[in-house]
Amino acid sequence: VPYYRRDYDRFGQSPSAVAIIDTKTDQILRVLSTGPIPKYVVSSPDGRWTALIHWGDNTVALVDTSSDDPKDYKITSVIAVERQLSQVGFENTDRDRACGLCLRGAIFSADSKYLIVARMGTGGLAGIDVEKQKYLGSLMDVPKTPRHLVLKKSTQELFVTSNKSGYVSKVSMKYLIHQMRGLK
Question: 100 to each of 37, 43, 64, 158, how far by Cα in Å?
Answer without folding.
Answer: 12, 24, 26, 24
